[in-house]
Amino acid sequence: MANSPHGGILKDLYVRDEPIQASLQAEAETLPYVTLTERQLCDLELILNGGFSPLDGFLTQAEYTSVVETLRLPDGTLWAIPIYLDIARSELDKLGVSTGSRLTLRDPRDDQPLAIITVSDLYTPDFANEAEKVYGANDQAHPAVHYLFNNTRDTFVGGKLQAVNAPQHYDYVAIRRNPTEVRALFKKLNWTRVVAFQTRNPMHRAHRELTVRAARMRHANVLIQPVVGLTKPGDIDHFTRVRVYQAIMPKYPNGMAQLSLLPLAMRMGGPREALWHAIIRKNFGATHFIIGRDHAGPGTNSQGQDFYGPYEAQDLVLKYKDELDIEVVPFQMLTYLPDTDEYMPINEVPNETKTLNISGTELRRRPKTGAPIPEWFSYPEVVRILREANPPRDKQGFTVFLTGLHASGKEAIARALQVALNQEGGRSVSLLLGETIRHELSSELGYTKRERNINVARIGFVAAELTRAGAACIAAPIAPYDEARQLVRQQVDKTGGFYLVHVATPLEACIKNDRAGVYQRAINGEIKGFTGIDDVYEAPENPDLSADITKTSISQIVHEIILLLERDGYIGDR
Question: Which are the contacts of 12, defined by CB distance < 8 A and separation ≥ 6?
Answer without folding.
Answer: 48, 49, 50, 178, 179, 180
